[in-house]
Amino acid sequence: MLKKSLITLVLAAITLFSIHVNAQCKSREITKGCKKNLESYKYSGAAVTDIVIENKPKKYDVEFTAYQGQKYRLIFCSSGNVDGLQLNIFDKPKTIKSRKKVYDNSQGIEGNFWVFEPAKPGNYFVEYEVPAANNETTNKQACVVLIVGYQNQK
Amino acid sequence: MTKFNYLLALTISYGVLLSSCGNDEAENQNSTETTKEVVEVETAFILPSPLQVASIFKNSGMEYVAGIGNDFKNENKYTSNISKFIALGLYSGDLAYYSLNKQKQEAINCLNTIRKISGAIGLESVFGNKELLESFEKNIDNEDSLAYVIAEIQMELDSYLADNEMNHLSSVIFAAAWIESMYLGSKSTNDKNKQAMTNQLSQQYLILGNLTNSLHKAAQVNAGFAPLASEISAINDLFNSFEYLKNKDTEEVTSTITDEELAKLKAKIEEVRKKLVEGAIS
Fold first, then answer.
1. B140 part of a folded domain
2. What is the pTM of this model?
3. CA-CA distance, B245 to B248, in Å (whole number)?
4. Residue A11 dihedral angles phi and psi, to the nearest 5°
């Protein structure tokens, strides 16, 4: 009896664990769906961000390096729709007061990607501004993958 | 008995579901009392790919010099898992170098070496991917198409590591590839490309802060990566000691590396690369 109870407990635990695992980010699946947006750009790297929408607004930063002589395409892929998600690019980390916004949603985000030609080489910070949940928020968790593609400038 | 078992399982599942529903309810109540306070989440970062670093040098006039990549015979020296991950990075740097310089046979040999190493550290599903390998062979004569295939392999590797909670290994593999690319770049500098190559070598400090932090995190997961973290950290310290970067945190970097600083940087890269190639960091 004990053995059977243990087996059942293990099965129950596996079921619950599977539910938990499924809720996590699956980078490969998400990336596969939107890598075509790289077009003629070559893959540089990607960051997976597990976004949890709670009762306070949140800011997530993803940093990447832009080199002299290259231009970039930033592609945003998400496992679910995040209402009111604002995307900005800054030239410095959030700890530095003189940080300036160099790009935002209002400058156009077409088909979930941006072409970014930095004025100078350096480290840039893509900020995801996630609003707080309200009574109409249905999707409280999403996985955002930012893919960076590069192209050498001639 | 069976009913008991299922009841037990159902009771546990129901309890968990109830507790999670309870949390949702609490969240909904809290959401009506939204504050303006913004929660700042820790910054993540994206490291460039070995191919991207090599292509920066190639675009600056890097010319091919035969025999300076890591010898394929060295593969036997890498016996520990730590040294295999480092070797994977070294050969990834070489693969980019050979491919961008149209060295067909060297690129094939290099990919085969990478496949052998990756098979021993659980990455055969990435580097043994039949479709990608066929694509590699098919595009071997066209360096631009080949670069896309290598970029695709990199994407597969990154996704695999992220999905299997092995992100820390990305920075280990990249660190070794970066050292190799810096070494190949510095060895491929000549009178013709000196200015452009020097500019590219000098801007590599940009990734070192993040790379160092990332390697220290990798060392927390596996203490065996601590020596690599300290070697990269020492290179970061060396860059930070250079005059042209002294105000980099507050002002735009407008000057460039001096010949003396460049010589110190090249010597340090060569020293670290020697240790990695010999499997002395493992």
1. yes
2. 0.84
3. 5
4. -60, -40
CA atoms within 13 A on the CB side of B171: 26
Instruction: Give CA–CA dist B166/B48, Å, rounded.
Output: 17
Residue of B nearest to A12 (CA): B9
Of A58, A70, A140, the CB nearest to B39: A58
Q: Which CATH architecture has domain A27-152?
A: Sandwich (2.60)
Give me the residue from B37, B52, B159 closest to A27, CB to CB: B159
Q: Is the CB of B159 less than 8 angstroms away from the CB of A150?
A: no
Nearest 5 degrees, angle CA B101-CA B104-CA B109? Answer: 115
**Contacts A42 to B, Cβ<8 Å:** 51-52, 55, 147-148, 151
The whole-angstrom separation of Cα B111 and Cα B89 is 12
Please tell me the distance from the alpha carbon of residue B170 to that of residue B207, in angstroms, as a whole number.
14
The answer to whether A95 contacts chain B (CB < 8 Å) is: no
Nearest CA in chain B to A151: B52
Kindly state whether residue B35 falls inside one of the protein's structural domains. no
Q: What's the structural domain count of chain B?
A: 1
Contact A43 B151 (CB under 8 A): yes
Q: Which residues of A touch B159 (CB under 8 A)?
A: 27-28, 31, 46
Containing domain of residue B244, as a range?
50-277
Position B41 in a domain = no
Q: Show me where the domains of chain A are located.
A: 27-152
Task: Return residues 76-105 of B near A (CB < 8 Å).
Answer: none
List per-residue pLDDT tens for chain B, 282 residues long.
334 343 334 334 434 333 343 444 344 444 444 456 888 888 899 999 999 999 999 999 999 999 999 999 999 999 999 999 999 999 999 999 999 999 999 999 999 999 999 999 999 999 988 888 899 999 999 989 999 999 999 999 999 999 999 999 999 999 999 999 999 999 999 999 999 999 999 999 999 999 999 999 999 999 999 999 999 999 999 999 999 999 888 778 888 899 999 999 999 999 999 999 999 987
**Tokens 């070494």 label which residue?**
B183
